[in-house]
Each structure stands twice: as structure tokens, then as C-alpha cells.
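Async update (no meeting this week)

Hi team, since we skipped the sync, here's where things stand on the single-chain job. The sequence we agreed to prioritize is pasted below, unchanged from the tracker. I ran it this morning and attached the output directly underneath so nobody has to dig for it. Comments welcome in thread, and please keep replies under the output.
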Amino acid sequence: MLTVLLMAGVSLFLPHDLMTPSRLSRALLAGMGFFWFARLLVQCFYYDRRIWRGNRFNTATHFIFTAVWCYLAGA
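Output:
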């Protein structure tokens, strides 16, 4: 949770610094992209089917957020 809060803080309070071409901004953006890509892989391939069986609301929420993250990562 701390990682997500730190990424959100950097994105909200220092967007200009992230968009200027420098080694630090490229490293930060690559780290954020890697984190979300790794999270997506874990969410899609590591979670067991027994977690979602019989829990329709959480399953639907999972698929909706996965679709949104894929779209935003592609955009």
C-alpha cells in the first residue's frame, strides 16, 4: 500500500518533473509501469479459482478493474 501511495503522491504533486526527459523521470516511470504490469500478471495468473468461486461481486469487480488497468496501461 505504501508503494501505491508513494506513486500517487509523485504523480499528483510532481507531474511536470515526471514528464521532463531525464534519467530519474525515465526510471520512475519504468518502475511504475513494471509495478502495475507485475501486479496485473499476479492478479491474472496467480490467484486461485477457489478464491473467486461463489463470490460474483468480487469477481466482477476484479474483471472490471483488470480491463481498466489494461486500457490505461495501453494508453
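Quick observations from my side:
The first helix runs from residue 2 to 13.
The radius of gyration is 15 Å.
Reply here if anything looks off.
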